[in-house]
């Protein structure tokens, strides 16, 4: 972008152009070419409603996610503040260095710093009571964010704050009120998901007059998580205080001989804070670097060296350039706001899995021991129940092969270090949370292998996959392997587990078959049919069965409760989850007309909102279709498998127009580490990976006029929409490299070969295109 005025810097896509009268806040502007891709990212999308995204500074897949926190410090209210920041709030309690993007669970928010001039209070206070604590009010008119950069004016604290980041280091720049004392509060008690006893132990240690290190161990979502940190200031502090605020515990710091209490150099306990006073800086800014490590304080100190200087504007420019490069994998031409929505979706898809190792390659694994990465970069934050569906398939198209190989090798390394010998289920900070169901690291690995991704050992990977699929104590697998389904009287969420295990098993079979392992393939192809064992032809729904064989009664297809027959859903959302065998589903429903009618019922049902109001994850409702949660994400594409792609096209338009907006509440539900965003990115291009591992994409319709995929192999794949207009909502014809394409699917190798996919759009549906059985996407069962 060109040099911007303050008003340009504060352009808010969601609220129009708002003037930011804080020229000094931003220092030197970032130089970039006109039409920079980052200009089309609105990082505030998802920060309102239940999107649970954060607006702060990070690099693509970075270890540091430096962002403001506004949350209420009470664990019963943690869900709306799962990312720490909520757009509806009007006060900030500080800036912490670790966050989830779009998760449905709260944690992290580590190493919280809060600058202030004048008196500093030691507790955050209350949003409804200004000056009751160290939190400060702010205005969105005095806030700006873009990929790799965040800035805000703290009104009560009289400090202008800027944030940027490298992969492992967060960099702050504070400008204080002229003539006031520059102070920084460090609260090690704080995190996004707080409750009594979460902090098991912590330490703060002085390392001279400008550097602080320490650690914290917590028993949050990932029990026993250890985090180490190093903080370095751009100038020495004049005074400091180290405090243990734990009730009933005396101060346990120590001081060298001849020093006063304020000069103590170390404190340990469960409720630590530190206060640093730099005096009057005479209008000069204060800069602060923060690095984290899962290994040690020395590891965090060494990570600081990733950012050797103090040139904030240069670091901001590097972060900007990193995002320009990452977003350059997809070139979008579309009217606004669609261009911003799609580009922001691409941005959100590149926040996780996040780097999680020190510069020397050491990381902490699921056994809570330190390991050494050899020849790869260890990543964590795998929300696999969500991201195997579209996020990881998208990354195979827009990220270098080495990055995707790092993901696979991180998963396999985690399995090898797991006390249970299985792949991650929902992992962050290298540790297992046991959240959600399935063994969905398996399709991530299988999809990568089927696409020919180099850089990992397929034998090791397959061994890890089968170890996970055959681990009886996990999630009713011992019963699944014996009975062919998970019985509801022995295991909760049994219907969902059965159909998800069946899909995972199919991906193992696909990979084993390609590797020439016929016996392994046969075993898992047989297991992949197990979804049939819980499909009730009489009702047309997937249902939970007892160990004695009968379906559980009474049966209500709208019933949804945590721990019931289904996982975050009802029979209306889960009965279409056999993405590897949709022709089998067509047969179960009596043919093409049966599937079309059933999916029409999903979308067209008149549903009282109270039916699902008790389930916070069932959101974005269109009838029973719930776009705010992942089990529904492929459903609109199922019409392709019944020879009615025109109905897929119409439903996609219905979903996109109602579930995405260029606004803080622009996501219908949790972004779930990029899955909801990846859905839009794929759908906007005109195709979607219904069954990762099939090497096929079901064709929908494009929502952009033109797009170019700059592929990891150096080739370009162009998507164009002729007669692109809101009135032309249907596909009249498709051409691939100039030749008519009669089928409703695209092969992965056709994309990777480069070329051009052209959609001719029209106002009326074409009911003949894609109707033939030979034109339909892959299914394990023949049509």
Automatic annotation (TrEMBL):
Query: What is the annotated signal peptide range for this record?
Result: 1-32
User: Which SUPFAM superfamilies does the record match to this protein?
Assistant: Six-hairpin glycosidases
Under the GO molecular function aspect, what terms does this record hold? carbohydrate binding; peptide-N4-(N-acetyl-beta-glucosaminyl)asparagine amidase activity
The UniProt record lists the keyword Hydrolase: yes
In Pfam terms, one family for this protein is Glyco_hydro_92
**Gene3D superfamilies attached here?**
2.70.98.10, alpha-1,2-mannosidase, alpha-1,2-mannosidases domains, GH92 mannosidase domain
Q: What is this protein called?
A: Glycoside hydrolase family 92 protein
Q: Which organism is it from?
A: Massilia forsythiae
């Amino acid at each position: 972008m060109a040099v911007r005025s303050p008003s340009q810097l504060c352009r808010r896509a969601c609220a129009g152009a708002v003037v930011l009268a804080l020229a000094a806040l931003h220092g030197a502007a970032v130089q970039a070419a006109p039409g920079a891709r980052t200009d089309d990212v609105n990082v505030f999308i998802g920060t309102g409603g239940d999107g649970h995204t954060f607006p702060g500074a990070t690099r693509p897949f970075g270890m540091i996610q430096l962002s403001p926190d506004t949350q209420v410090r009470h664990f019963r209210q943690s869900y709306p503040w799962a990312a720490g920041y909520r757009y509806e709030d009007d006060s900030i309690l500080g800036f912490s260095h670790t966050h989830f993007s779009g998760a449905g669970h709260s944690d992290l928010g580590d190493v919280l710093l809060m600058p202030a001039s004048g008196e500093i209070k030691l507790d955050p206070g209350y949003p409804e009571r200004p000056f009751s604590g160290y939190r400060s009010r702010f205005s969105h008119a005095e806030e700006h964010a873009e990929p790799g950069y965040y800035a805000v004016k703290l009104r009560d604290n009289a400090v202008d704050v800027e944030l940027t980041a490298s992969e492992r280091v967060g960099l702050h720049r504070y400008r204080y009120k002229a003539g006031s004392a520059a102070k920084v509060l460090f609260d090690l008690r704080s995190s996004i998901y707080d409750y009594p006893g979460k902090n098991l132990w912590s330490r703060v240690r002085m390392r001279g007059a400008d550097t602080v290190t320490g650690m914290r161990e917590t028993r949050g979502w990932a029990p026993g998580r250890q985090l180490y940190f190093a903080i370095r200031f751009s100038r020495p502090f004049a005074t400091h205080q180290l405090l243990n605020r734990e009730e009933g515990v005396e101060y346990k710091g120590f001081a060298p001989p001849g020093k006063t209490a304020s000069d103590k150099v170390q404190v340990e306990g469960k409720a630590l804070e530190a206060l640093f006073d730099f005096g009057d800086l005479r209008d000069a800014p204060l800069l602060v670097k923060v690095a984290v490590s899962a290994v040690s304080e020395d590891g965090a100190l060494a990570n600081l060296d990733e950012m050797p200087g103090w040139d904030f504007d240069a670091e901001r420019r590097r972060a900007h350039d990193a995002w320009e490069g990452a977003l350059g994998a997809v070139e979008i031409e579309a009217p606004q706001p669609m261009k911003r929505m799609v580009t922001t979706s691409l941005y959100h898809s590149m926040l996780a899995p996040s780097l999680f190792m020190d510069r020397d390659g050491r990381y902490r694994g699921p056994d809570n021991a330190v390991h050494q990465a050899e020849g790869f970069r260890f990543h964590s934050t795998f929300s696999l129940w969500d991201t195997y569906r579209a996020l990881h398939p998208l990354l195979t198209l827009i990220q270098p092969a080495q990055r995707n190989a790092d993901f696979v090798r991180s998963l396999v390394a985690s399995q090898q270090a797991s006390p249970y010998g299985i792949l991650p289920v929902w992992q962050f900070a290298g540790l297992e949370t046991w959240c959600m169901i399935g063994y969905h690291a398996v399709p991530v690995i299988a999809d990568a292998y089927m696409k020919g991704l180099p850089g990992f050992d397929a034998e090791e990977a397959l061994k890890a996959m089968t170890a996970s699929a055959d681990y009886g104590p996990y999630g009713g697998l011992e019963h699944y392997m014996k009975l062919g389904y998970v019985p509801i009287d022995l295991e909760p969420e049994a219907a969902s587990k059965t159909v998800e295990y069946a899909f995972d098993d199919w991906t193992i079979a696909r990979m084993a078959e390609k590797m020439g392992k016929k016996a392994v393939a046969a075993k898992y192809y047989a297991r992949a049919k197990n979804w049939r064992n819980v499909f009730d032809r009489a009702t047309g729904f997937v249902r939970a069965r007892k160990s004695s064989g009968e379906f559980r009664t009474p049966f209500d297809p709208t019933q949804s409760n945590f721990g019931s027959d289904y996982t975050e859903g009802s029979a209306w959302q889960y009965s279409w989850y056999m993405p590897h065998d949709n022709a089998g589903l067509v047969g179960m429903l009596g043919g093409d007309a049966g599937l079309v009618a059933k999916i029409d019922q999903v979308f067209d049902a008149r549903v009282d909102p109270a039916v699902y109001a008790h389930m916070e994850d069932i959101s974005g409702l269109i009838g029973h279709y719930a776009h705010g949660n992942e089990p529904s994400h492929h459903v609109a594409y199922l019409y392709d498998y019944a020879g009615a792609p025109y109905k897929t096209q119409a439903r996609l338009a219905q979903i996109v127009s109602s579930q995405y907006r260029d606004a803080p509440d622009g996501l219908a539900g949790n972004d779930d580490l990029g899955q909801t965003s990846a859905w839009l990115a794929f759908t906007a291009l005109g195709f979607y990976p219904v069954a990762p591992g099939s090497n096929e994409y079901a064709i929908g319709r494009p929502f952009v006029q033109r797009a170019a995929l700059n592929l990891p192999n150096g080739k370009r794949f162009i998507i164009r929409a002729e007669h692109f207009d809101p009135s032309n909502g249907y596909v009249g014809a498709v051409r691939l490299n100039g030749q008519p394409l009669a089928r409703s699917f695209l092969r992965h190798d056709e994309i990777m070969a480069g070329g051009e996919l052209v959609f001719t759009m029209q106002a009326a549906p074409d009911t003949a295109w894609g109707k033939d059985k030979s034109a339909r996407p892959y299914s394990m069962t023949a049509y």
